[in-house]
Structures are given as C-alpha cells and as structure tokens.
Write a structure and sequence with these properties.
Elements (H helix, E strand, L loop, with lengths): L3 H14 L14 H14 L4 E8 L12 E7 L3 E3 L5 E5 L4 E12 L12 H4 L3 E13 L9 H6 L4 E9 L12 E6 L2 E7 L8 H14 L9 E6 L4 E2 L5 E6 L3 E9 L3
Parallel strand pairs: 1-10, 3-7, 4-13
Antiparallel strand pairs: 1-2, 5-6, 5-10, 5-11, 6-7, 8-9, 8-12, 12-13
Helix pairs in contact: 1-2
C-alpha cells in the first residue's frame, strides 16, 4: 500500500512541473480519513500560503464507500485571481483534469478556531463578512481524478487549481438561494444554468458549516480573511488551455477567465 507521503510527493511534484500523470500514482485511498492524510502531507510539501478552502458535494452513488455529504480541499495564494475589474488568466495542466465551476465565494470575517467546531448554518452565519460571485478552477495532474471518486479527489487538494473572485453580492443575507441565479458560458456557448439553491446540502452557508466542523476535526482554524468556495451551481464544465469561460451572475456581474497551460 502506498504511503500518504509517497502519494503527496507524486501529486505535488507533478503539479509543480505542470506534468500530467498517466494513472493514480499508488494505492487509491479506501476512505476519506486516508485521503485527508495524503492532503495534509501535500499541504506541508506545498510552498505557498493557504488563503482558503473549496467545498464540494459527494454524489449519492459514492456515499456507501465515502460516508460524508461533502469534501474539502485547500486554496493557495498563487492560485487566487481577482476578476472584479477585468478578465484574468488561470492555468490547468495539459493532459490532466481541467474544469470551471460557477460558485459563490464567502469571505470569513472573524476567526473560527478549531476547537469551536460550529455545525449549523445559524452558528456560522455571523462569521460571514461577505459573499461574492466567483469561479473555481478545478484541476489535477490526473485526467481521471473525478472518475475515481472522493478518495482520489480529496487526496489531490480536492481537485482545486484556483479561485477566481468576482463582485460582492449586496444584501446577500436577505435573499433566498434560489434567487442567486447563474449561467456559465464556455467560448460563448451556454453550458449550464443554476442558482445557489443547487449547492449540495443546503446552499453556500451550509457548505461553510460543514467546512468549519471538518477543519475542527483536523485541528485547523479558519482564520479571518479566508475565502471559501462553496460548491458548483451550474455543473462541472471541462476546459482545456485556450478556452474562455464566463460565469454570469444575475444582478451582480460576470466573472471572465481565459484558461491557459500550466508551465513547470
């Protein structure tokens, strides 16, 4: 069986080199605790500041093996882009996995200590300083990462390759998630439509409730100023270098991204 460190080294070295992997580089984690052990090793090997986290729903078909509603992965400073005024460029690894997801992004206003471990929407809502339109750049050196399931995804940074920040949403706390509507275009063609109500497990704030409790179990704080990608709203849309993605948030604005090729 592959060690957590061996798997973490394989993934982080491939990410640094911008090099695709032909197959999962060892034994597939049989459960989420094993996958997060790989993720923790990889965070330790990654020489970049942690600026936030992504949360994603786990499909019902995977629940018998991976007993959790969602999974989490880190977001790093070099992969953070601010698209509030113009289109940005963000890389994916040629031959690996690359996708764009229209998401709502939370900014944490007060520290959530690991020992606090809030579990409900009501408990975490006061920690939210702002909600923004945004986009997750999903990415991995392994093209089949999603197909292998939550254990593989969680082991490789949660399949995250970037966070793109859009405009702040005014009066977010007085609107129903179903009113936060979004459409995604890739190269000008609409590829998905949805709303915050589609975020798995009860909407964006519920994703934060999951994350705070999850990080608490890992002994990790969620500091003020952190960003949280809360989950896809229109689907997971695969992209390759050279494509342009636009997430249009009704009444808020558009997040515009040019996908480029990662270089070592």
């Amino acid at each position: 069986m592959s060690s957590s460190r061996d798997l973490a080294i394989a993934f982080t070295e491939a990410r640094r080199a911008g090099r695709a992997l032909p197959a999962y580089p060892g034994t597939l984690p049989p459960d989420l605790p094993t996958a997060y052990a790989v993720q923790e090793e990889a965070i330790g090997l990654w020489t970049d500041a942690l600026v936030g986290w992504k949360v994603a729903g786990i499909a019902e078909t995977w629940r018998p093996r991976y007993d959790a509603p969602r999974l989490a992965g880190p977001v790093f400073a070099r992969n953070f882009r601010d698209a509030r005024e113009l289109r940005v460029e963000t890389p994916v690894i040629p031959g690996g996995f690359g996708a764009v997801e229209a998401e709502f992004v939370l900014r944490i206003g007060r520290d959530i200590p690991a020992e606090a471990r809030p579990r409900t929407v009501e408990e975490v809502r006061p920690f939210v300083a702002a909600v923004h339109a945004g986009m997750e750049i999903a990415g991995s050196p392994l093209a089949t990462l999603n197909d292998l399931g939550p254990g593989a995804v969680a082991s490789d940074f949660g399949n995250n390759a970037g966070l793109v920040l859009g405009a702040e949403i005014a009066e977010w706390d007085s609107r129903q998630p179903s009113d936060w509507t979004v459409r995604m275009r890739v190269d000008g063609t609409v590829v998905g439509e949805g709303s915050a109500a589609r975020v798995a497990g009860g909407g964006p704030i519920a994703s934060l409730a999951f994350l705070a409790e999850h990080l608490g179990r890992r002994g990790r704080d969620l500091p003020a100023g952190s960003w949280v990608l809360t989950g896809m709203t229109t689907g997971v849309h695969k992209v390759v270098p050279g494509q342009r993605a636009e997430a249009e948030f009704d009444g808020v604005g558009t997040v515009d991204v040019l996908v480029t090729a990662a270089a070592g």
